[in-house]
Structures are given as structure tokens and as C-alpha cells.
Amino acid sequence: METAFIIEKFVLITIVFVLTLVIAMYSTLAERKVAGFMQDRNGPDRAGPFGILQPLADGGKFFFKEEIIPAGAHKSLFIAGPTIAIITACISSAVIPWGQQLTIGDRVIDLQVADINVGILYVFGVIALGVYGIMLGGWASNNKFSLMGAIRAASQSISYEIAMGLSIIALLMVTQTLSIKDIVAQQSGFVNWNIWVQPLGFIIFVTCAFAECNRVPFDLPECETELVGGYHTEYSSMKLGLYMFSEYINMFVSSAVMSALYFGGYNFPFMNDLGLSQNWITIIGVLAFFLKIFAFIFFFMWIRWTLPRFRYDQLMNLGWKILIPLAIANIVLTGIITLIKDTYW
After folding, report:
1. Which of 51, 205, 259, 332 is least enclosed, having the fewest CB within 10 Å?
2. Which residues of 187-215 are buried (b: 16+ CB within 10 A; e: fewer)?
3. Taking the model in full, what pTM does it have?
4. What's the mean pLDDT when you consider all of the chain?
């Protein structure tokens, strides 16, 4: 039984890892296609039908470009920066429940790599580690623009993680659990999605997610108009590719977490009224989950080509003077509503 369990988890980890890389790879194409659509042009359309081979061409370019390490750089830390960034991005999805249970023969398989009772804390902890990759890369480059981008990234991450954590506290007051699997299980039925009971918390969370992923309008750490290329100015070849990949993986994982916490995860309307077997409901649930994730990824891309970039002082003011007070007010409001509900209902 232990051997079968290990094989199941190994297969699941492999599938999730490959899917994550493929989605991140084709998110680069989707980004350019969305940009083309919003700017009334085609976007990439030369490499393969409709440009579907463009990510492979981009990957080949990264692999075969010359590897350059600046003469004044700290070599080991220069290499460690993108390594930490990609590793933390890839392992952050370990606690996400991708679907209900699958029954194959006499085996019942959970579609979750690790079901830990503090899943949300795990996600926050891993995301917090990711900024070390950016800081090391910016400092080890021995470039003032890279260092400035790294300092911006660290300040931005610290500022917005506070508001994000406070928004999650209000959600935990409603769900009474830190397990992402339990939170998703509580949202069976469209009316039970947490977005209906925590709309303000969701708005704060999604705003902070944009900042944590360094997405426009919060892409100040790599602001090319001010900092050349930000913290990865001196990077080339696949090291630059790893930084870019980590950003798209973070966007994918953030979309998955938002879908799981606020939009029911793998739950979909009328799932218990279809009269299908559990395996079919699980498969449809997985597809519904990924549909929600792709919708959020499109939202990330839509915002990029819609809103202008903030000034850095506006970015910090939004985090400290608006989002954090709003998140605290949301906690107080949630507490009052919960108290009234428990007292009178």
C-alpha cells in the first residue's frame, strides 16, 4: 500500500509540474495574443498555425543564447537568484486541491499533492520566500538599477503581504479552517461560494495578488522606463527565462488560489444533480476549476493592457493607507456580522 501511495503522489506531482510549466509557457503566447486583440492586431502568427509554436521558439532562444555573468557579479548568488525564484514558484501549488477523489480499481486517489491543515499558511510562507530570489539576483548583479529593482520588490512584497494576510483573516473567520481542501469543500453549491460573503476581502486579495506577482499596474520592480529591466537587467539566456517563467507560474498559482478560496475551486453549479458517477463529477470539476483559473489569467492580462503603471509613492500609499485599513475594517465588519448571526440565527 505504501508503494502504491508513493507512486500515486509521484504521478500527481509530475502531472501538476508539467501542467504548470505548459500553462506558464503558453501564458506568454496568450499575453501577446491578448495584447494584439486589444490593440487591433494579430499578435504572434508566424511560428506554427496561429503562432502556437511561438513559446517553443522563445524557449529555444533562451536555451541557445550566450550565457553572460557580469565581471563584478557574485557568481554563486547570481545563479541562486533565479533558482530560488523558480523553485518557490513551482512548489507553491502543492496544497491546492485540483478536484475531488478519483476511484481507480480499489484505490481512492486524492487530487491534491499534500493535504495539510495549514495550507494557506504554507502558500503564504512559500510566496514570501520567493522575494529572496529577486533580492539575491538584484544584489548579486552589481548593478545599481538591478539593486533598486530588488529593493522595490522587497518593499512591495512586504507591504502588500500584510493587506493580503488581513484579507484572509476575515475569510478564516467565516470558514473556521486553514485547510484549502476544507475551504473548497464548504463551497459546494453556487450560493455557498465565499465571494458572496467576502466581496471586499476578495477585492483586497486580488489587488495584493497583482502586486505580489509584479503585474501591471504594480510592476515597479522591473519598470523598464526607469530601471532598464529592473532586478534582472544583467540576466541573459535561461536565467532570465527562469525569472520570467516564475512570474507566469506565480500568476497561475495565484489564479488557482483565488479560485479555490473565493469561487468554489472544483465545485460548479448543479454538480450534485447531474446523476453521474463520482469519477465523472470529479473530471468535470477539474475542468471547471481550470476554466476559472484561465478566466483569472485572462483578467491579469486584460489589466496589463488597460491600466497605466503607478508611481512608486502611489503604490506604497495604496498598500499602507488604503488596503490595510480596508482589510482591518473588513475583519471588524465580518466579526460583527458573525456575532449577530450567531446570536439571533
Report:
1. 332
2. bbeeeebbeebbeebbebbbbbbbbbbbb
3. 0.92
4. 89
Q: Name the packing angle between helices 144-175 and 324-344 (round to 10°).
A: 10
Of 25, 84, 106, the closest CA to residue 231 belongs to 84
Question: For 96-130, what is each residue's pLDDT tens digit?
Answer: 999 988 888 788 888 899 888 898 999 999 988 88
> Which residues share a beta bridge with 104?
107
Beta strand extents in 181-318 (DSSP E only): none
Q: Look up cell 534582472; give the residue.
A: 232
Per-residue pLDDT tens over the stretch 240-281: 889 888 989 999 999 999 999 999 999 998 887 877 888 899
Please, is 49 exposed, middle or buried when counting C-beta atoms within 10 Å of its C-beta (0-12, 13-18, 19+)?
exposed
Distances (CA, A) of 18 to 15, 90, 123, 337: 5, 10, 20, 43
Contact, 271 vs 188, CB < 8 A? yes
Per-residue pLDDT of 18-37, as tens digits, reads 999 999 999 999 999 988 88
Q: Which sequence spans correspond to the domains of the chain?
A: 69-100+114-344
**93, amino acid identity:** S
pLDDT for the residue 35: 86
